[in-house]
Structures are given as C-alpha cells and as structure tokens.
C-alpha cells in the first residue's frame, strides 16, 4: 500500500504544471530521500575540500575549533556534517587544521563520527572511566592542539552575527580550560569564517534549488486560482492551511508559517482578520518550502476578478510594475564587494529619483531562510543595519529579493496599494545575478 501511494504521489508531481505569461514550467519531483542524501554528501565534500581552505586562509586561521552538545548545535553544524546527521552526538568537537596548500586542511571529529569518511574520527578509550566521563574529549583535544601547535585558533563568538556566535558559554568555559595558558592567547574571533562558509553556495546546488523553487511556485499558482479560492466562501486562513497541507503532501517542509492577506477598495487592510475573499480583492502571499537543507522564499500577488472583468485594472497593473522597477534598481546596485548598507543607500537614492514609494528588505537565503551573509535593509531600517549590513556581497551566494512598492490606484479612488514581491536570485562566480525562475510580472488570477 505504501509503495502504491508513493508511485501515485510521484506520478502526480510529474504532471504539476503552471503558466505565467508565455512560460510554462514542469514541477518535476525531487529524487528519493536516499538519492537526495547522496547528492548532499557530495556537496559537503566539495565545500570542505574547496571552499573551507580558501576561507580559513583569507581569515588567517590556522585552526578552527567548533565544539557543541546534542540539541544545542552551533549554527554552522549543518554546513559541516552529512545529511544523515541530525544532531551532535552527546558532545561533538570538529577541528580543522591547515597543514598548508599542498597537504590541505586536516578535518578531525572528536565525537560525532567520520561523516561518511570526510573526517578523521578520534577517540581515546583510555580516558573513559566514570570520573573522567565528559572530560575525555577535552583532554583529547588538548593533546591534538599541542601536537599541531597552531599559531591562530578560531572560535565562533560574535556580538554581531548569530551565525558566528555558536559557541555556548558552557562549552567556551571548558574549551578555555582545555587550551590552557599556552594556547588561549592564540584565540581569534574570526566572525567571517563561519558566516561566509554557511553563505557560499555551490553551482552544483543550483539544479536542485531551481527544482525546489519550481514546486514552490506551482503551489502558489494553484493556491491563487479557482481550484482553491471560491470568492465569497474561502478565507485567507483556508488558503494558508491548504498551502501547508499541500507542502507536506508533496514530501516537503517549510521554515515558516505561510501568510495570505488581502487589500480591498475602501477598506483599511489593517482591519482584516482572516477575511472571506471576495471579488475585487488584491491577494498577497508569503511562502517558502524546504528540502535537502535548502529553503525558498517567495511573495506573490494575485487578483480576484470582478463580475464582468477579464483582466486586472490598469492601476493595479501599474502597482506591480512599480515593484518590478524597484527590483531592477536593486539588482543593478547589487555588486560583489559592495556592502549591503551601501547597496541599500544606492537603491533608495535611485528609488526616490524615480518617484517610487517603497522599501527594500532583501536577505541571503540557502541553508537557512534568513541566511548568512549581508542584509540589504530591514522593513523598519531603511537607512542601513550597522554590522549585519556592513558585510560585502560575495560571489556564489543566493538572495531573496524582498521589497515593496506602494502606488495610488485610480480605479480605487486614489487608495494606495502595496505590491510586495519576493523571489530568489543567484549571484554567480563572476558576480552576475540570475533569477532562479523568471520573476512575477503579472498577477495570479482567480476568475
């Protein structure tokens, strides 16, 4: 029975299609979990062998120590371990030591296993008596550090970046004791090392991410259609929970609760609480799916045609056009090496020259929904974000281009309509920006 259900689901996924403008996409299913794990394991190998050495040397780090305990994992944990490893094992200490360009980075695991052969697993069974239980790993770490004698030792402590602040107070206290007065002066807080390692994506990840994004867009397309919305009966919460259920039925997860909201002529949008959707409503959703330790993030606009209407009123079309124009301005300013705060300032300056009212709050995405890397504004911080926005934009990173433009609509007696859009882009190795899928340039229609 289970196999029959699996084949039915696979057949169903293979024929999901949706159309936007002249483009049509086939939402092919993700491979089996076993195949996904094999793909992810190869991504891990490439990142450890090619990305990590470069970052350690750029940050002048000779040794990187990452200790953590079960269910209190460092944010960098999932970037360091195999897809079949879901948590630290009691205590896991990952140690990386740069032996030079010829020998490369030595990868050591004190607890947690070899991660499919990508680490050398260390354990000293002679230290396993009851009195020393819990201390044996630290004694082993002391031995390993002394034998390698690193000039610099990076730890994950940061007051600015959550992704670089994974060393808990308890582990930090024991680590200091293990290193002792000889090695403690060699500690450095290399904030950019974990931050950039999490942020950097591989070109090999793009096909799977595009496939995941295609499924996400297909779900939105169906949600904002007559297949789900019956004007005068369906509420916004009905659509939200349909999206959640659909996501789960397709074998995917999500990293946040979806949202669906409306704007309506003559009504304050802040007055709504789970309204019934009626004809003439402007729809908006915020939705993302998760699989293979990847996350998507999309905000799309929809419209419910009034009786007799065959298209969206021109004023509403102009609202969407303005958010598309703001996307263009932002992408022109997103240049490798430029900080998020400077990108935001340049974008806001051009936005004002073009008489666009709106806001930009764009963030990295990938292994986390609100990912590691520079942020380009927050919805309530349009003059920049000290620290988090000072990081330069890097090649081989992904971003959710998230923003909104607010436009007065003639057909709504000058009432302002907010067109909030979000779709994901890839900054490639050359710094060229590509949409993962074509952005939304027309409303989803409920007829």
Task: Draw up the topology in text.
Blueprint: H1 2-14, E1 17-20, E2 23-26, H2 33-58, E3 63-69, H3 77-80, E4 91-98, E5 105-110, E6 120-121, H4 136-148, E7 153-154, H5 169-183, E8 187-188, H6 192-199, H7 206-223, H8 236-249, E9 259-263, E10 282-287, E11 290-291, E12 294-295, E13 298-304, H9 314-333, H10 340-353, E14 357-360, E15 363-365, E16 397-409, E17 415-427, E18 433-435, E19 444-446
Helix pairs in contact: 2-6, 4-5, 7-8, 9-10
CATH architecture name of the largest domain: Alpha-Beta Complex
What's the average pLDDT? 92
Order of strands in the sheet with most strands: 6-5-4-3-7-8
Strand content: 15-25%
**What is the rounded Rg?**
25 Å
Q: Report the structural category.
A: alpha+beta
Distance between the termini: 38 Å
Number of helices: 10
The tally of beta strands, per DSSP, is 19
Fourth-level CATH superfamily of the largest domain: Creatinase/methionine aminopeptidase superfamily
Helix content: 25-40%
The low-pLDDT segments are: 1-25, 129-133
């Amino acid at each position: 029975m289970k196999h029959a259900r699996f084949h039915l689901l696979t057949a169903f996924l293979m024929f999901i299609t949706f159309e936007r403008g002249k483009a049509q996409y086939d939402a092919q299913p993700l491979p089996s979990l076993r195949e996904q794990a094999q793909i992810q394991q190869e991504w891990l190998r490439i990142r450890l062998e090619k990305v990590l050495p470069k970052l350690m040397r750029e940050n002048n780090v000779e040794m990187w120590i990452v200790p953590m305990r079960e269910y209190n994992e460092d944010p960098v944990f999932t970037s360091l371990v195999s897809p079949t490893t879901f948590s630290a094992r009691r205590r896991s200490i990952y140690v990386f030591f740069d032996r030079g360009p010829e020998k490369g980075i030595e990868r050591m695991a004190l607890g947690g296993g070899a991660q499919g052969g990508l680490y050398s697993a260390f354990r000293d069974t002679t230290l396993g008596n009851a009195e020393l239980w819990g201390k044996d790993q630290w004694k082993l770490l002391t031995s390993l550090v002394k034998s390698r004698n690193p000039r610099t030792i990076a730890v994950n402590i940061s007051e600015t970046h959550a992704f670089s602040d994974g060393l808990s107070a308890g582990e930090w206290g024991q680590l200091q004791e293990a290193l002792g007065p000889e090695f403690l002066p060699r500690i450095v807080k290399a904030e950019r090392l974990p931050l950039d390692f999490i942020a950097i994506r591989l070109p090999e990840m793009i096909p799977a991410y595009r496939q995941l994004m295609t499924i996400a867009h297909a779900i939105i397309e169906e949600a904002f259609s007559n297949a789900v919305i019956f004007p005068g009966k369906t509420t916004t919460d009905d659509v939200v929970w349909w999206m959640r259920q659909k996501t789960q039925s397709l074998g995917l997860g999500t990293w946040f609760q979806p949202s669906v909201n409306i704007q309506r002529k003559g009504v304050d949008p802040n007055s709504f609480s789970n309204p019934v959707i009626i004809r003439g409503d402007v729809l908006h959703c915020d939705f993302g799916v998760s699989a293979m330790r990847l996350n998507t993030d999309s905000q799309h606009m929809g419209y419910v045609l009034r009786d007799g209407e065959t298209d969206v009123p021109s004023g509403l079309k102009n609202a969407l056009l303005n958010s598309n124009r703001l996307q263009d301005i932002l992408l022109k300013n997103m240049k490798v090496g430029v900080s998020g705060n400077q990108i935001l300032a340049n974008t806001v300056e051009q936005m004002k020259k073009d008489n666009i009212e709106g806001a930009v709050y764009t963030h990295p995405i990938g292994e986390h929904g609100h990912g590691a890397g520079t942020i380009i504004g927050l919805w309530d911080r349009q003059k920049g974000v000290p620290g988090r926005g000072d990081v330069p934009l890097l090649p081989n990173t992904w971003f959710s281009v998230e923003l909104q433009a607010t436009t007065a609509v003639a057909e709504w007696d000058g009432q302002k309509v907010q067109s909030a859009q979000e779709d994901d882009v890839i900054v490639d190795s050359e710094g060229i920006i590509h949409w993962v899928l074509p952005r939304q340039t027309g409303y989803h229609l409920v007829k």
